[in-house]
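Need a sequence for this fold. Nothing fancy.
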């Protein structure tokens, strides 16, 4: 459905294209008009139940193709319109320019299928294009983080400028990465259902209708443990307790995307292990274990991850979900030995994890006891509530609102 928006000012709209193209180039003008057009459409909210029903009852590649060739340009255009409202100084950073060029290229590639026939050849080309887009955008999070770091280093003599934009950057990145999560789910579902490397078993694409929560938690712990032992030569043990108040079972299974849950738990384990190891008086000996409690009720599945890593003050813990804040060492520069996890030092682990939880109707909370430890609570929706999952987190560009938050006008 077309929404009625007021178009952005020409001077603002052309800022994006001036980064990597000449604004007077005919292809650039055409692309600009297409992005303006598609940014006025509203992305379609989709629930996990709809994904499963499609894969289970239909699984028609043509239907998926027809939907995505309209939906993906709409979502990509909305992302581009959000990006051009960043400060010029940030848009001109090398890494930010690179991310912008990726989304420009992906929009151009997908839009070419608008007038294509729905035949076997087009379906194959579309599938190949989805693979290319996945590979192209694989490092968007890290590259965008580098763009923010480059911007901060460029203006390190003007900390008031960084602080001035802090809340607006937080707002933008939340919307940007939420959009990215939605686009990745759509593309991954199509590739996993119809690609050459189709998943086997009971999964419907990336979605597991019987996701064993405790098993995913254990896998995430093992991955974080391996990383911790490489860095500290040791790691905390884990104690897992499972309580299911709904079914007569010692297991907890829900409809979920295992890769999302793994990402959530891995980031939390990584933080808990680092705190535990660095607060221990004998890191090679007695380190307090991490305790995990998994519960399932009628509306929520909850995962509590508790460590005794010393905790933090309220002043510090209140900043844990900020993108521009991190207590970890700075990430390694190109050519340096990598001894830390991806995103460590960027300050993106926790805010991104919360976005993953919220995108599918859940949430992430942290409660820290200074001098003792920290409890992390992951909430995931279960049962009939999965029908509402993605409806609340479809990011739409709204020029009237965005005009008010134009960072260059603050």
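Here you go.
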């Amino acid at each position: 459905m077309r929404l009625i928006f007021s178009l952005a000012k020409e001077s603002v709209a052309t800022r994006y294209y001036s980064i990597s193209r000449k604004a007077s180039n005919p292809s650039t003008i055409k692309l600009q008009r297409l992005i303006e057009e598609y940014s006025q459409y509203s992305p379609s909210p989709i629930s996990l139940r709809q994904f499963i029903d499609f894969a289970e009852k239909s699984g028609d590649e043509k239907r998926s193709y027809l939907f995505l060739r309209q939906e993906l340009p709409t979502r990509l255009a909305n992302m581009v319109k959000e990006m051009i409202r960043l400060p010029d100084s940030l848009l001109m950073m090398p890494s930010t320019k690179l991310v912008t060029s990726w989304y420009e290229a992906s929009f151009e590639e997908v839009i070419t299928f608008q007038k294509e026939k729905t035949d076997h050849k087009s379906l194959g080309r579309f599938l190949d294009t989805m693979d290319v887009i996945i590979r192209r955008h694989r490092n968007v999070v890290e590259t965008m983080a580098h763009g923010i770091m480059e911007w901060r280093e460029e203006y390190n003599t003007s900390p008031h400028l960084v602080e001035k934009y802090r809340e607006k950057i937080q707002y933008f990145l939340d919307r940007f990465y939420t959009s990215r999560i939605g686009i990745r789910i759509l593309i991954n579902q199509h590739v996993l259902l119809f690609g050459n490397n189709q998943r086997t078993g009971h999964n419907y694409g990336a979605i597991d209708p019987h996701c064993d929560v405790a098993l995913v938690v254990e896998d995430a712990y093992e991955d974080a443990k391996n990383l911790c032992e490489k860095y500290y030569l040791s790691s905390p043990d884990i104690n897992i307790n499972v309580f299911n108040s709904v079914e007569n079972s010692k297991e907890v299974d829900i409809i979920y995307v295992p890769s999302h849950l793994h990402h959530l738990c891995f980031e939390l384990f990584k933080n808990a292990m680092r705190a535990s190891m660095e607060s221990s008086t004998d890191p090679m000996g007695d380190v307090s274990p991490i305790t995990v409690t998994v519960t399932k009720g009628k509306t929520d599945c909850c995962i509590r991850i508790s460590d005794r890593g010393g905790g933090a003050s309220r002043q510090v813990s209140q900043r844990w979900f900020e993108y521009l804040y991190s207590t970890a060492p700075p990430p390694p520069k190109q050519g340096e030995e990598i001894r830390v996890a991806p995103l460590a030092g960027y300050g993106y682990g926790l805010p991104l994890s919360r976005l993953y939880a919220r995108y599918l109707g859940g949430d992430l909370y942290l409660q820290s006891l200074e001098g003792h430890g920290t409890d992390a609570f992951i909430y995931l929706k279960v049962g009939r509530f999965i029908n509402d999952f993605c409806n609340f987190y479809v990011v739409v560009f709204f020029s009237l609102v965005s005009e008010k938050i134009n960072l260059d006008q603050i």
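For context: The longest helix spans residues 159-194.
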